[in-house]
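dude i think i finally got it to work??
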Amino acid sequence: MRIVYLSIGRHVHTERWIRYFAQRGHDCHLLTVQPGPIDGVTVHDITSAGPGKPVRYWRSLQVVRAHLAQLQPSILHTHFLTGYGYWGAFSGFRPNVLTVWGDDVYVTPHENAVKKWLAQTALRRADAITGDSVDILKDCVELGADADRCYEVQWGVDFDRFRPQTAPDVRERLGIPRDAQVILSPRSFTQPYYNIDVIIEATARALQDHADAHVIFSGYEGDPTPFVARAKAAGLEERAHFVGRIPHDEFHRTLAASDIFVSVPSVDATAVSLLESMAMGCGIIVSSLASAMEWIVDGENGLIVAPRDEDALVKALDRMLTDRIERKAFGERCVREVLGRADHFVNMDRMERLYLHLAEGAPVPNDLVSLSRRLELAC
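look at this
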């Protein structure tokens, strides 16, 4: 098949997804305003100039339409509801699959009436919608998506790489003793809803009673400078390590050097880093979001705290740092859970069969259940 993608360029999610299908032998093209090379993929820059954002969007839409007319793909797959989703919807091309990511559903459509209308239009015009949690798909339906066309598809984990292991060289490079306990916070510095400030303050308090512990911040986007200053002011200067963006093919090594994974956003879909941390057997602390609680059960395979509840996070960190036996048991349960549900290659195979259904009339994959059917089965 020839597959055209509309998506954020130079992003690991985009690259992993498209690379899989290129390696499967499909003729893959990426239309993006953030062009960058991807092995086996033809990348097209759709950036347009103009006086103001609406004009630029309109001109880029004409570029998208021109590429689609020339390429005549078997399928158009749009990633990200806002921005790219608008281009996909108004391109008029069918069949069009839409994959939602996170704040493109949870946040942006609720900022004003125009953005809500655009999001609703994109969702209604999609022939199929995929998301990485039941929760985000339910929000799509509330915005007007057809539940019969919504499917859960995980970005998935490469279990050949993400599996319990050790990486003493990472600790050595950072100056962390081999027997120290390590907390990892890998979320972006760009958005306040990731609550990095709360993680810093809670970690500083928890580490007062755990002299052997260190914390790694590997925010993949944004300026860490204010957070570095905050960590220093909180007394973490000697035990906080800000390592910047970690390439995805190296992320498993940082996880292998870590004992505890912390991610407590106020808004989020299913974080791939959460699933990868589960696969590595880390002790997991997450916020009480529906998407996270589809994977973590408090006190069974991890700990759950309310977003921005610093006191609760201090207690959770202290519990994880104190009871290593319980933490190990949590990690073992996480490995079993994620192995059964989040294999990258299994999920991409389902996606390929969904493409064939939409483009060639093949049967809907038996193991790809619509949201409406899932909700019926849950009753």
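The chain has two domains: 2-156+343-378, 168-341.
im so relieved honestly
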